[in-house]
Amino acid sequence: MRHQGEYHYLGLHEAREDAERVVADFRAEHPTTRRRRLESVRRNHVRCYDERTLLAQRAQIIDVMESGVKQLLRLTTASGKVLRCSRDHAVLTPDGWRKAGELQAGDAVMAAGTSPRPSEALVPPSLRQGIGVWTSMQRNRLIKELDTCYLCSRTFPRAELELDHVIPVALDLLLALDEGNLSPACRPCHTAKSADEQGLAKRGGKVAVAKPDMLVSVQDDGEEMTYDLSVAGPWHNFLADGIVVHNSYNEESGRYRELQPVFYVPAAERKLVQQGRPGKYEFVEGTPEQHRTVTTAMEDSYQRSYQAYREMLAAGVAREVARAVLPVGLFSSMYATCNARSLMHFLSLRTKDERAKVPSFPQREIEMVAELMEQRWAELMPLTHAAFDEHGRVAP
Question: Which of 2, 86, 119, 369 has the highest Cβ tally under 10 A?
Answer without folding.
Answer: 86
